[in-house]
Fold this protein.
Amino acid sequence: MILVFLADFSHGQTLVQKNPKPRTNEIKSTQPITSNDITCANTLQDHCGNKTGYGDWNTNNILTAFLTLFTLVLAYFGWKQFALAEATSEKQLRAYISLVFNNLIEQDISLDRNYEFHCHIQNTGQTPAYKVVVNAMVGVMPIPYPENFNFELGQVNNPSITVIGPQQSTTIYPSVMGPPYDLAVIHEIKNPGGRRLCLYGRVDYKDVFGHPRFTNFSYYVIWGDKGAPSLMSTTQHNDAT
């Protein structure tokens, strides 16, 4: 039996403990420690037990990936904002062409003069309209137009090309091609229920940003109680880009 004497110096007594348990920090080994054991222990500590090193490496890579993703997202939204601002600026500054009715000159058989429209091609935009070409047709047509009515006028040979500045206009004078209408046709177009004197066509132009644009127009004439002509838009062929 192993006896361990513990001295209690504060009370001057000696205590005896039987068979004390070995301390937990004691290492029992029957084999001597070799250099290979030390190397393995160091390797295990470096590659398996050193959690702090691996944690730092993983954290750095996660942060780098997050920053890269954040930069890409930020660049994408920046590009979207730039594109939106550019499109908004273009819409605000570009040319817008429309046709404005001014007057209608009545036909005069004695002068062999047919109906003639006086209209303004107006640019309501903030920048010029370039290479403006107007192609128009005047004639007696059924209103409303038939569903399969062909508004195409074909290519104009040697067209007149002009530039219309911002908030400026130019005047056109489309008229009926051919001889004046007889009295029966005049009576028909000036009274309800029959055909109407119509003006339709297209304006092609380019805006300051180089984009091709067009404006389609289609109108017919009605005469009021006092005989004054007015221009009414149709439900077809009145659109623009």
About this structure: The longest helix spans residues 51-93. Residues 34-93 form one domain. The two ends are 109 Å apart (CA to CA).
